[in-house]
Design brief:
This protein is α/β, with parallel strands linked by helices. The protein is 51% helix and 17% strand.
Length: 175
C-alpha cells in the first residue's frame, strides 16, 4: 500500500514497484470519466503515458471483482477515488441517507474489498491518499469522507504486507 498526500509521488512509486514485479500487469483505474473537465482528461492521459504498453488497464470501481479474478500483479490507483464513487453509490453525502443505511452499505463494501485483498493470489499494490493530516473539515459530509478514508486506509494497511508513506517524492517505509 502506497499512501501520501497530493502530488507526493504515490502513483509513480507504485508504478515503479510494479515494474519490478512483472512486465505484464493489470492497472485498475478507479477515477472514471468527468465530462467537460480538461484538467482531469490531461491527468488521465499523463498516467496512461507513464504505464508500459504491456499493462492492461481496467477502468472500474469493482475492484474486489478484479482482485478475485486476477492472475497477474495488480495496481489499484486509487482507493481514494474508489471511496468517492462508493460514497456516491450509497448516498453518503446526505446525512439522512447515511443514517438510513448508507453507513452499513459502505461498511459492507469495505468488507468485500478487504476480503478480496486478503485472498488475492497475486501481488497487489494500491495507491491511497492520506487525508487526515490537515485541518478538521467544516462540513459533516467532508468530515465523513475524511473519516471513512482513514478507516479504509487502516483496513487495507492491516491487510498489506508492506505500507509506504510518500513524502515529497521520498518513500518512507511504515510497515
Amino acid at each position: 500500500m502506497i499512501l501520501g498526500g497530493a502530488r507526493s509521488g504515490k502513483s509513480a512509486e507504485a508504478e515503479r514497484r510494479l515494474t519490478l514485479l512483472a512486465d505484464d500487469a493489470v492497472y485498475v483505474a478507479t477515477g472514471g470519466h468527468r465530462e467537460g473537465d480538461a484538467d482531469w482528461a490531461e491527468r488521465v492521459l499523463r498516467h496512461r503515458k507513464q504505464r508500459p504498453d504491456s499493462w492492461e488497464t481496467v477502468e472500474t470501481t469493482d475492484v474486489a471483482a478484479v482482485l478475485r479474478a486476477a492472475n497477474r500483479p495488480v495496481l489499484v490507483d486509487c482507493l481514494t477515488l474508489w471511496l468517492t464513487a462508493m460514497m456516491d453509490q450509497v448516498g453518503a453525502w446526505d446525512d439522512e441517507a447515511w443514517r438510513d443505511g448508507g453507513e452499513r452499505e459502505l461498511a459492507a463494501l469495505f468488507d468485500e474489498l478487504e476480503a478480496a485483498w486478503r485472498a488475492a493470489a497475486v501481488p497487489v499494490l494500491a495507491v491511497s491518499n492520506e487525508v487526515g493530516f490537515g485541518i478538521v473539515p467544516e462540513s459533516a459530509a467532508v468530515r465523513r469522507f475524511r473519516d471513512e478514508q482513514g478507516r479504509l486506509n487502516q483496513r487495507i494497511a492491516a491487510a498489506s504486507d508492506a505500507v509506504v508513506l510518500m513524502v515529497a517524492g521520498i518513500a518512507v517505509g511504515v510497515k
